Amino acid sequence: MTDAPSAPIRVLIVDDHAVVRRGIRAYLEVLDDMEVAEEAANGQEALARLERMSMNQRLPDVVLIDLLMPRMDGPTAIGAIKQRYPDVRIVVLTSFGEMERVHAALAQGAAGYLLKDAEPGEVVSAIRAAAQGEVFLDPAVARGLTQQIVSPPTGLGALTSRERDVLVLVAEGCSNQQIADELVISERTARTHVSNVLRKLRLASRTQAALFAVHQGLVPPPN
């Protein structure tokens, strides 16, 4: 007596480029253990799709999501998905491998992080790993994380270019919402950036961050 075949892994594809979604769908749908449940063009649309699927008790097993999208960015969407549907696993597929983006995605609950130059087989492996409760990282991303652990940068060198921009705005007295408006990101992402800046610089407050920025010559001292 043979075991009954397991149900295919249901995948929700979230990317603002239709050609990317179609390409991923075409590849996954030829696999016996994969099923594309839905597509969405941004984070808000993904949440709407998930709400509808939840009502029908047909949630996907894995969400494959880009990071830079209109209306709601990837990290914000990842956090919202994990809060509402904690059993749904999330794999990031993006063009951006900066460590700040990796940390933001993993902190929000992503179970995998791939770059868009990954081979199709790697995407499939990441989806399968996520469905089994494992974490799958792009080799370049894994090397970056390992390097940070082995020889973490310190001081201003620890910040990404985006985090330096955030530090300057903090020093100028901007609120999280004002930072979000200036950098065209969500308020939640701005808040995450500020927290990362304080953590990396080992500072306890925005005031200390402002003083640090002045000391580093990033902003002029107050009159």
Written account of the structure:
The chain is α/β, with parallel strands linked by helices and 223 residues long. It contains 10 helices and 6 strands; from the N terminus they run E-H-E-H-E-H-E-H-E-H-E-H-H-H-H-H. Strands 2-1-3-4-5-6 form a 6-stranded parallel β-sheet, sandwiched between helices. Strand 1, helix 1 and strand 2 form a beta-alpha-beta unit. The relative contact order is 0.10.
Rough outline: elongated
Largest sheet: 6 strands, parallel
Using only C-alpha atoms, the radius of gyration works out to 20 Å
Q: How many domains would you count in the coordinates?
A: 2
CATH superfamily of the largest domain: Response regulator
Name the descriptors.
Rossmann fold, Arc Repressor Mutant, subunit A, alpha/beta, 13% strand, 223 residues, 10 helices, 6 strands, elongated
Topology:
Elements: E1 9-14, H1 18-28, E2 34-40, H2 43-55, E3 62-65, H3 74-84, E4 89-94, H4 99-108, E5 112-115, H5 120-131, E6 136-137, H6 139-150, H7 161-171, H8 176-183, H9 187-201, H10 206-215
Helix pairs in contact: 2-3, 3-4, 7-9, 7-10, 8-9
